[in-house]
């Protein structure tokens, strides 16, 4: 067992420690979730979920919010900016947080580094302790930041979810090597709050295995991208319960065109039940998607401890 997969399977005690009562600040006119890379993918999921809860929200990449915030929202007063950064040192995110505070927004920093620049440039710090062995690829810290932010927007995270996520990752790990053998094109499909999770699954697999990887809203996939599907394709469907019938029809089409389908919450060549509240499905899925990326990398004999061209912290000069 290499370091990356060991860290993935050892993340669950850190979830247990992070679960707790986090009080949300006063109601804001708008909540802006911002981050870069994995943190932005989480932001997309969180903004969708916040809207479902009746809390108006958007997700914006850190650099976009820094350089052209008016393209996304014209007012700063009563705006709550939630900035996500594992390291707390991501250049765009730290600068965007500083600019947001200067303009009058309330800024919450979510990080696993309490002494970071981001932690020192916020109005409220929300933090958790991550696995000390986590390397360049974000695994435990991604799960922890999603967990913390779900609590910030008012979602209770019950302790039994930890066991559910662990069991799901273990179940996926038993079948993934066989399903992905010889396949080189990966597609992650998820709608609503699961779109950001689909993007994160795609990013993990892409950076870990250097494979051609995409992510789409499910019903958008027929509108052009489906032309790439063939016997080299693995499709990972993150089912939404209220769209299951329509998404299952798409899965059947992909199978007819030669794709192998992994279904989370619905039909596929491999099917995995998801037993938790709808708002918690994304968090439940993250470890399973992380181990999928690791196994894809191992199939290509790629060491995920040092992914090509990547560093643990992105700092711009």
| Ends distance | 37 Å
Mean pLDDT: 91
Number of strands: 10
Assembly type:
single chain
Number of helices: 10
The top level CATH class name of the largest domain: Alpha Beta
Query: What helical percentage do the residues reach?
Result: 40-55%
User: What is the CATH T-level topology of the largest domain?
Assistant: Rossmann fold
- The geometry reads as globular
Structural class: alpha/beta
- Describe the strand arrangement of the main beta sheet, using strand numbers: 2-1-3-4-5
Helices, strands, pairings?
Layout: H1 3-9, H2 12-18, E1 30-35, H3 38-52, E2 57-61, H4 62-67, E3 79-84, H5 91-102, E4 106-111, E5 124-127, H6 140-152, H7 160-180, E6 185-190, H8 195-209, E7 212-216, E8 233-238, H9 244-256, E9 260-264, E10 270-272, H10 281-299
Parallel strand pairs: 1-2, 1-3, 3-4, 4-5, 6-7, 6-8, 8-9, 9-10
Helix pairs in contact: 1-10, 2-6, 2-7, 3-6, 3-8, 7-10, 8-10
Walk me through this protein's architecture.
It is a single chain. With 317 residues, the chain is an alpha/beta fold. The chain has two domains: 3-152, Glucose-6-phosphate isomerase like protein, domain 1 (Rossmann fold), CATH 3.40.50.10490; 160-299, Glucose-6-phosphate isomerase like protein, domain 1 (Rossmann fold). The protein is 40% helix and 16% strand. The strands form two sheets. The protein has a five-stranded parallel sheet with strand order 2-1-3-4-5, with helices on both faces. Strand 8, helix 9 and strand 9 form a beta-alpha-beta unit. Helix 3 runs parallel beside helix 6 (140-152).
């Amino acid at each position: 067992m290499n370091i990356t997969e060991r860290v993935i399977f050892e993340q669950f005690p850190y979830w247990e420690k992070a679960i707790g009562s986090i009080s949300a600040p006063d109601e804001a006119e708008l909540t802006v979730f911002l981050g870069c890379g994995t943190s932005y993918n989480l932001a997309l999921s969180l903004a969708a979920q916040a809207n479902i809860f009746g809390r108006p929200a958007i997700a914006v990449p850190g650099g976009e919010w820094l350089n052209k915030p008016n393209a996304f929202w014209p007012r700063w007063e009563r705006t709550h900016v939630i900035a996500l950064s594992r390291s707390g040192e991501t250049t765009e995110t730290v600068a965007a947080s500083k600019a947001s505070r200067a303009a009058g927004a309330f800024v919450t920093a979510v990080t696993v580094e309490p002494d970071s620049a981001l932690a020192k440039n916020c109005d409220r710090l929300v933090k958790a302790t991550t696995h000390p062995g986590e390397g360049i690829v974000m695994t435990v810290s991604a799960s922890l930041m999603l967990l913390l932010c779900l609590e910030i927007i008012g979602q209770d995270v019950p302790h039994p979810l930890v066991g559910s996520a662990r069991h799901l990752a273990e179940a996926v790990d038993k079948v993934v090597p066989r399903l992905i053998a010889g396949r080189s094109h990966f597609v992650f499909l998820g709608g609503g709050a699961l779109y950001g999770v689909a993007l994160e699954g795609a990013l993990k697999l892409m950076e870990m295995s250097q494979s051609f990887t995409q992510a789409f809203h499910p019903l958008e996939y027929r509108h052009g991208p489906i032309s790439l599907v063939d016997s080299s394709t693995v499709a990972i469907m993150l089912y939404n319960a209220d769209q299951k019938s329509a998404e299952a029809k798409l899965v059947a089409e992909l199978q007819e065109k030669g794709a192998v389908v992994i279904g989370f919450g619905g039909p596929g060549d491999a099917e995995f039940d998801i037993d938790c509240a709808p708002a918690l499905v994304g968090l439940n899925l993250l470890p399973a998607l992380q181990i999928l990326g690791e196994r894809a990398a191992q199939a290509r004999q790629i060491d995920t401890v040092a992914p090509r061209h990547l560093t643990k912290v992105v700092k711009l000069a």
